[in-house]
Amino acid sequence: MKPEDDRDLYHWIIWYIWKTMNDKLFRGIDRDSLKLVRYAESECQALYNAKDYIHAPPQAHIVGDTQALNLDNICMVDGSWTSTDQFSGIGWMWKDDMGKIQLMKTQNLSRRETALHYELEALRWAMESMLQHSTC
């Protein structure tokens, strides 16, 4: 099997277990395990369906450096927050085009104003870390 055709759900399931754990710890929300696995499967399938629709543009003479979106690499980001807890968590994971986790980090932060602050903090942290490890 070609690496780009590998649709291993392992990484997706681990990611949604992480998100479900945050929901349980910080929001008191209990989720059904079977639904979690099925949702992870549907998200994986959606990514590969989207990749099937992306076609390479015709080759043209391009001057200068360009960057293109590559759906073979994916960075998943999440933040967890409740209005009553003193601390909350953020995390992110980068999976390469071979489907292997290259980096995965989590962090505990002191209380912020809203859930959006945590989501943005997680995104900022992931972007900074990716720039340190990227050749782009």
What brief labels describe this structure?
single chain; 136 residues; alpha+beta; three-stranded antiparallel β-sheet; 3 helices; 3 strands; 43% helix; globular; RNA-DNA hybrid ribonuclease activity; RNaseH_domain; RNase H type-1 domain-containing protein
Can you give a write-up of this model?
The structure is a single chain. The chain is α+β, with helices and mostly antiparallel strands. It contains 3 helices and 3 strands, in the order ααβββα. The protein has a 3-stranded antiparallel β-sheet with strand order 1-2-3, sandwiched between helices. Strand 1 and strand 2 form a beta hairpin. Helix 1 crosses helix 2 (33-53). The longest helix is centred in the first third of the chain and has 21 residues, at 33-53. It is globular, with a radius of gyration of 17 Å.
